[in-house]
Amino acid sequence: MKKKLLLILMMITIFTTGCNKLSESEDFVQGQEKLESHQYNEALTLLSQVLNEDPDNSSARSMYMQARKMQSAQEYENNQDYIRAIRELETIVNINDGSKQIKREAINKKAELEKLQDQKEQEAIRRKENAKKVSKEENSKRKYHTSNTNKEKEDKKQNQLQVSENKKEEI
Q1: Where are the alpha helices (DSSP H) in 37-99?
Q2: What is the model's pLDDT at position 20?
C-alpha cells in the first residue's frame, strides 16, 4: 500500500514538473517568436516568465536583453538619435546567446544607421559652412556700406569747407 501511494506521489510530481517545464518551453518559444516579429513588449513579458521559472536560462536572458535593446534602439532611431541607437545595436551584436535572426537584423540596422548618422553630420557641416559664407558676405556688405557712408561724410565736409571758404572770400 505504501509503495502504491509513493508511486502515485512520484507520478504526480513528475507530471506537474513536466507540465511546468512544458509551459516554460512554450513561453520560451512564444517569446522568441514575438522577439523575431518585433513585438518587444510581448516578448519581454513571456521571456520574463521563463526567467522567473528558471533564472539560469541563459538563452532566455539573452533574448530578453535583445528585446530590451532593440526596443531602445528603435526609440532612439525614431528620435533621430542615431549614435545611441547604434550603441544599443552594438550591444545586441555582442550578446553571445539569443536569437541569431535578431543579431543579423541588428548588424544590418547598425550599418543603415551609421550611414544616416554620416549624412546627418555632413548636412551639419554644410549648414555651418553656408552660415560662415553668408556671414562673410554680410560683413563685406556692411564694410562697403560703412566705407561709402564715411566717404559721403568726408565729401559733405569738403563741400561745407569749400562753401565756407567761398563765403569768406566774398566777404
Answers
A1: 40-53, 58-78, 82-94
A2: 44
